[in-house]
Amino acid sequence: MNMLTPLPDSKWNDATAAHLLNRAGFGGTPDEIERTWQKGLIPAVRDLVEVKGDAANLPAPAWAHPRNIRAQRMEIKAAKDRGENFQSKARQIRMMEGDEIVDLRRWWLDRMLNGPAPLLEKMTLFWHGHFATSIQKVQDAYWMWLQNDTLRRNALGSFGMLVKKISRDPAMMIYLDLQQSRQEHPNENWARELMELFTVGIGNYTEQDIRESARAFTGYRIDMTTQQFRSAPFQQDHRPKTFMGATGNFNGDNIIDILVGKPACAQFVGRKLWRFFVEDEPSTTIVDSVAATIRSHNFEMRPALREIFTSAEFYSDRVMGNQIKSPVQYIVQTSKLLNASAPAPIAAQNAMRQMGQILFAPPNVKGWDGGKEWISTSTLLFRYNFANYLVNGSAMLPGEAMARGRGAGPGFRMGNIAEQIKRDPIEVGKLVPSEIRAKPREVVDLLAKRLFPTRPSDKEIDAFVKYLETRGSDGTDATLRELIHLMMSTPQFQLA
Amino acid sequence: MNMNTKATLQTRRKFLRTSMLGAAATWTLPVFLEKTFFALDALAADAATQIVTGKDGTILVVLQMAGGNDGLNTVIPYADDAYHVARPRLRLAADQVLKIDNHIGLHPKLSGLKSFYDEGHLAIVQGVGYPNPNRSHFRSTEIWQTASDADHTLSDGWLGRYFDNCCSGADPTVGVAIGGETPQAFAAKNPTGVTFSRPEQFRFQPSARGNGQMSAEEMFFRELNEGAAGDESGTAASNAGGSIGAIPGKTKNDLSTLDFLQRTALDAQLSSDKILAIARKYKSTVPYPQGQLAASLNIIARMIAGGLATRVYYASQGGFDTHAGQINTHERLIGEFNEAASAFVADLKQQGNFDRVLLMTFSEFGRRVQENANGGTDHGAAAPMFVLGGAVKAGLFGKHPSLTDLDRGDLKFNTDFRSVYGTVLDRWLKAPSQIVLGRKFAELSIL
Fold first, then answer.
1. Is the distance from CB of B215 to CB of A470 less than 8 angstroms?
2. Which among B172, B198, B260 has CB closest to A400?
3. What is the rounded distance in angstroms from the CA atom of residue A109 to the CA atom of residue A103?
4. Distance from CA of A53 to the nearest CA of B (A)
5. What is the DSSP string of B95-135?
6. ipTM, interface predicted TM-score of the complex
7. Who's near B35: CB < 8 A, 6+ residues apart?
8. Are B72 and B367 in contact (CB under 8 A)?
9. Which long-range contacts (CB under 8 A, 24 or more apart) does B97-100 make?
């Protein structure tokens, strides 16, 4: 069996510790990096992977409970058909839905930034991209929260179990039309994506496998009162199916067991894990190693993650500081690095949209491609200008869309936008001690270490120093915020 | 990074920078750029003719009518009894429509388009759609944006694949979308194209604003983002014999991540400079109406006048999801479209650019034939597209779909939308549609 090479103790230092926190979580402050380093590699990885049992047991947002929003929509429609006044009720519901999804995004960003289990949140984000589902079709924030909760509770455990839970997840069932699938008309949408995008990948199944497995997934329904999955045996196709060479009266879980048993599945998941946490183009040797670990541990995710985060390959020069931060990573990690609160919910939502990764609304069932696809001239300039907002506060609005609230999406209320995106400038004193403020080189060294994953070239460091000097090296808050904004307006800052 | 890639990059930077300088002589330049201007100019001079300069090539303007435009009340089969039966409240009578022939007429608000038709500059493609139509805004828009089959999901947009396959190494402004978000049609393996709402916003915004002059911070930002391009002495000579246009552009997979980011940062800075410079220099003398669509088309017209090296512009108009009280809403939207498009065409004619610009409209679907109980229409399927331009062969193309032979209450398509895309790619952008769209679709004689 192939194995990754363990990282030698001699390579465990503050840089590798910072790298671990960047990739397995959402970055670390200098203090957190120091503590992680002191802990040692194996205990540090253990603490990330072996999260406390109740870490996934999070209090839901206050509004997140079953309440049959569809029935309310139908009431409105009926009132409308009767010619009654339905506008105020309809507006109320729309507002509620819009506010909820904004709040759900806030809630999750808060978990990422302040929660006790960064890897658990990062894996939940990984699975959100893997089992991509969008509020745009699901149209109910409760179901999006419920899926998020399911992903989190199963994020580090058995992959087979997770797929089965997702096959019964109302948001997914709506997104891929599974709840419409019945014996006479099996819907193939879910069956196709289950194979193409969730388990074995393209090339490892036939069109017949799709048709036959679609029959096995008939009879999955949602109880609209409880808003949970229910089984509808009369809609189910109980006849024999021939799937991947085997014939039997398979149900959905049987199909998932068969798929997860295929070597291609461990390869597919292993490759995707490596791409998410480590690098865009993994070698086949590495994919084989991760896949072998996944298979030998019965598709438990923890052993594979432990192996990745303790491997020399994960800490190699070509990997460290060479991943483009996803928009979500950018928002959370920047807030952490600036020792500041997360941006206001509506500002964060707008920024996610403009940067191309809006939580709970992936562009399609393939999720986000990530890597270099995050960056275009538009998104890069937006990142630079959004950095301005994060550092200098709402005095500087990142772009017209923010100022006018356009693109802010549902939940945005005209008139109080300024109130909603209000943000104070960062407290420079938390980042730069007063005794070095008037010493440009020390200020630049300190901030460079904090902000960049790898130290910029001497030439660039000198340029920042020179900038401070020409600004009069007075070290005022405003000047230092300018410097911080400039350091963030660089290609290097986009990397983790 | 190998030497060859490096040389290409450096050359590309020089070219961009030189063409930027050429277009913006009055712009306050960082000193280090001024110093190298003349040296770079000589290098770019022979190469410039091989790159789209913005002054010659054909230009496509894509106009998205978001929400599902009611095609049946846009291009109206006024002589068909079934139309009047299905639309008791929404129907437009024979004496109201702008007649194209004995059967078909345009919405009364489309007077501008009617005159373009009469002048021979408007092609109306009827009954456009795709097999197994999807009635979700979200999914159907995605199908139009990616040009996929209904049962297959693609991530990259059809214009993105055009950029990837046909424009590698091109200026980033080869695609320009006006709006807050990049349309999925631009999504690409090697993302290119720029998106902005207002030229003034598509730029680095320093913390402190100077008084009309570039702030120290902005100046420094410029130098910072020239970082990798600063070490270029020597490489120019090694590449001087080559012509820029002949060197295939490097895809992002050939670049290290940092190189890629540096290149994009430079592209962003230079394109934002160019766009801002053009926006300041070129103002339209043709009056434009109020409204967002008119403002978007006005920006596009000014970018065309200023010679931005763009092949594809993208603008959108929203609000077409008329489930209730359609008659006034639709009239307002169609009127806004008509006036904006008319001003745009008048502007292009005045510039002398009408013959090299093609405006193509699309909407994710048409609407249900039968009007609903709320004086609106629900999501439908096939609908017409407009293709407008000085080089267009005017006429009605495709058949108007039957109003009685329906698919679940919706019009059946007879022209695949990818036939329109394919024709525009092959005949207008001179790009192989088979590669961009994955297969060959029947061509239309609109061009």
1. no
2. B198
3. 10
4. 38
5. TTSEESSSS-EE-TT-HHHHHHHHHT-EEEEEEEE-SS---
6. 0.90
7. none
8. yes
9. B100/B75, B100/B124, B100/B396
* pLDDT, position B253: 47
pLDDT for A1 equals 54
∠ CA A118-A121-A127 to the nearest 5 degrees? 140
* Burial label, B65 (beta-carbon count in 10 A; 0-12, 13-18, 19+): buried
Band (pLDDT 50/70/90 cuts) for residue A82 is: confident
Is 70 exceeded by the pLDDT of residue B12?
A: no
Whether B97 contacts B133, CB under 8 Å: no
- B415's enclosing H/E stretch is strand B415-416
Chain centroid, CA A14 distance in Å: 26
Which residues on B lie below 8 Å from A396 (Cβ)? 205, 207
Q: Model's pTM, two decimal places?
A: 0.82
Residue with tokens 């610009």: B357
Name the average pLDDT for chain A. 90
Which B positions 154-213 lie with beta carbon below 8 A of chain A? 155, 172, 180-182, 184, 187, 189, 191-198, 201-208
Interface check for B318 against chain A (CB to CB < 8 A): the answer is no
Instruction: Return the closest-CA partner of residue A175 out of A152, A155, A198.
Output: A198
How many C-beta atoms surround the C-beta of residue A116 within 10 A? Answer: 12
pLDDT in tens, A148-206: 999 999 999 999 999 999 999 999 999 998 998 889 888 888 999 999 999 999 889 99
The arithmetic mean of pLDDT across residues B203-232, rounded, is 64
Q: What is the rounded distance in angstroms from the CA atom of residue B203 to the CA atom of residue B213? A: 15
